[in-house]
## 1
Amino acid sequence: MSEFTPFKRAAVIGVGLVGGSLALAMRVEKLADKIVGYDLDADVRARAVKLGVVDEAAETFAAAVKNADLVILSAPVGAMASLCKEVNAHAGDGALVIDVGSVKETVAEAAAHVRPGVHFVPCHPVAGTEQSGPEAAFATLFKDRWSILTPLPRTDPAYLAAVERAGALWRGVGANVEMMDAGHHDLALAVTSHLPHLIAFTLVCAADDLENVAAAEIVKYSAGGFRDFTRIAASDPVMWRDVFLNNKAATLEVLGRFTEELALLQRAIRWGDGETLHEAFSRGRSLRRAIVAAGQEMAEPNFGRDKKK
Amino acid sequence: MSEFTPFKRAAVIGVGLVGGSLALAMRVEKLADKIVGYDLDADVRARAVKLGVVDEAAETFAAAVKNADLVILSAPVGAMASLCKEVNAHAGDGALVIDVGSVKETVAEAAAHVRPGVHFVPCHPVAGTEQSGPEAAFATLFKDRWSILTPLPRTDPAYLAAVERAGALWRGVGANVEMMDAGHHDLALAVTSHLPHLIAFTLVCAADDLENVAAAEIVKYSAGGFRDFTRIAASDPVMWRDVFLNNKAATLEVLGRFTEELALLQRAIRWGDGETLHEAFSRGRSLRRAIVAAGQEMAEPNFGRDKKK
């Protein structure tokens, strides 16, 4: 990172898990001279300062972004349209603005209204945990994960330089960087992130509603597989509500594929078709091996939960 | 375990993950004077001896169970009917026979054909990993997990004593013991284990089939949630085929609940009904907290995959 000129003042809007982790990582890697945090919740602002996640907190959005050469929007996707208006009103010319939202087409639509002097580069770091708030933030969250950039359709040199700088920022906090079209992002992430979350939330609700199996039994026998799903089903409900409201088409498309596949296996169960079940169940191991080989998952069985001996 | 009289000779039929782990745990806890392994696959037998999972291997089922006072059937549920015939032919009077299968009603049906002098106590330790074979076995697999016993409808003192002894065996390897009706077991486990596996297998197949998202992208962005599902989708396909072929009614019942819930959320996404989504998504955290509090899951975020700092 020797060639990276640190930002003078970074404004982090939303200092929860992702915004807070990015702030922490930038502090560790010395990517900004000063990091100012802002959050709608005054208590969260105070905690972020106390925890050392940011150098200081601002009382308003305007005060946070004033003179900032980097603005990081880390809020639920549903808030992006109104945040872009705030950016337009308060960010200085030449500022780089990034977001960290899980959906990119609606962010691109909102970002199109930001004036050209401000360089908005939509980003999505594919990293997170099921926890929320500044207490959940940690500096290595992005290490070896992928951050996807979906630049706006602008070809002016100032914007291209801003895209370059956004990429360098992500690499600076340990992430790999990929560029793609916002629409393709939304489809790819519908598969690898949005559908898995929807399925996990659904399974938890379905289990919770089954009146002839007690909640205590679900807890006791959860090591049979159910507990795995509760991790992502414990994720932030507001963030995920906004993901589905803003990635409707791609989610419904991949959900259609999922329910077709499920119908096929349901039919195989009903008719005792062991061959179809065996064929389908045999596809999991190679994909998991590939994910482990790519450094995106641990090799230890059971996520290392049960230590050998 | 001071009151536990060790078995003289335990025969472990099937020395993979579960049978092998039980053999290892019994050796560590000194619950049997001698442990003999048998497996259909001669190579697996040899590896189990070499790995120290069993004291020795027998060449046939009959040789393994001869003079055994404990027989552990650790094979896919579909093999239980034929294994019960073998037990009937070769096990000695007074022997305790247990299985470790994930489905219990069909095991009870098979066990009903075993002669009364042999005491078959159907068992299901709710523990495992996504790996298979004797190399995957480890002695602490059952520690703090639940083992469910679904005794046959017999009230003779010899059988009741055998049930008692089976429970003591599981407690001896670190498990908690619960007794229930086989039908209730199959429904409860359909929720906490069988449906989660079916859903995970389905999701992996659906992702694998999506031609406009590359396999490489699924791997790269799997940290968005998908990777969690690949763990249980990497489980043994034969074992899981047999689970669904043998627990059809309960699986289809809970699958019906799941698809109803999914349809509700699908409709909410289509119509932009954020309230329904938020309400559903808010139910996950408390259930996960309960599972962590019950010692069935780790508290660390992300299954401890991403270490803080």
## 2
Amino acid sequence: MFTFTPIGYVRSPYRQKFAIPRQPGLVPAARGEVVFTGEFADPNCLREIEQFSHLWLLFRFHETAARGWSPTVQPPRLGGKDRVGVFASRSTFRPNGIGLSAVTNLGWEHRDGELVLQVGGLDLLDGTPIIDIKPYLPYADSIAAATGGYAETAPGNAFAVTFSAAADEALAALAATYPDLRQLVTAVLEQDPRPAWRQRDPDDKQYGMSLYDLNIKWRVYPDGLEVVRIEPAGLED
Amino acid sequence: MFTFTPIGYVRSPYRQKFAIPRQPGLVPAARGEVVFTGEFADPNCLREIEQFSHLWLLFRFHETAARGWSPTVQPPRLGGKDRVGVFASRSTFRPNGIGLSAVTNLGWEHRDGELVLQVGGLDLLDGTPIIDIKPYLPYADSIAAATGGYAETAPGNAFAVTFSAAADEALAALAATYPDLRQLVTAVLEQDPRPAWRQRDPDDKQYGMSLYDLNIKWRVYPDGLEVVRIEPAGLED
């Protein structure tokens, strides 16, 4: 057994697993940051990192790690029905609960006494502990000829996302705080974050998710999704 | 702090760090295997893994982990002179000591009561503890547009490798046990595994390294390397 100490944690718009895209890079508007802690909050550790356009984040699946693992899992890409081995999946329910995400490197800064590294295309929950950061080395890491089996291509066609008049007003009022919010909400919802078995099917429910400190409510129609309301968290139905 | 339990360990031709290529995939002839241990020696964990041509290995830098880390390191690619931040490098001397390698998936089998996964393009020391195996997902992991800074391209031109008559005889005698040995020795040595500061310079030393249970001895000349002898380990000068 080995012990690991987080080098920092993530600040992310994603406050619940439900809304998170299933792989990094699918939602480029999802910007976040790594906040370094303790002895790792040392800018020397980041010297020349600006040379690299992309970085690997190694992180702890902190929300699900306590729930353990099982030898087989049901990936969303197979409709949540067929089972594959845990080592043939990127499931969070895995031995040792470590995740791996390639993100874009948007630079680091000192801000309010903290050392923070900005990243894009993030797919991590707010608060996720970071174990390591490595430069993405195209000559070793980018394998164009690799075949990806049941996950060969990116998830299917985008679902059309529209905004109600009330949601449009809310976006306008929030523009100073969250300038990219429309883009982020669209990018998250056009992937239809509902459970795999009802992907692309309309139903009569109102769905909700948290992004930043906001609640986003939407409905699913035969021809797409409509964002009905965007409200500060705490104003629950 | 988190604790991690290895899921298995690596069997590799590389018995010392000196000979290991600096990134995976540089020496395709370097085949090895992951031997699963304990509850992870369960073929269900590998179900459908044959769908993926490449896999990520997450592993422990077990030989160097005890030596800790420092905020800056001197990458071989910069001649071992200039310093970069540890998170801008793939150095083994890093917080938490976890490595990441993409390898080719050559299939798994039960052999002599063990569950083993064969891999190619391996760059890990014999005995390396494996923490996780993940499928390589081209749509998320292969980022052709990424820029790699000081490590943009694969290491430089190959050094010419020749074999003495004695080395040729040894290869012939060992062909039944190690059919790819010439290819492996050539691929390892053409990268010139000497320290970065003397790369490509001739000198008058005889060098040695271990591969499998063999000692490989070579000399460096102005126009390339010559493998002088290949002997079973234990027959030291």
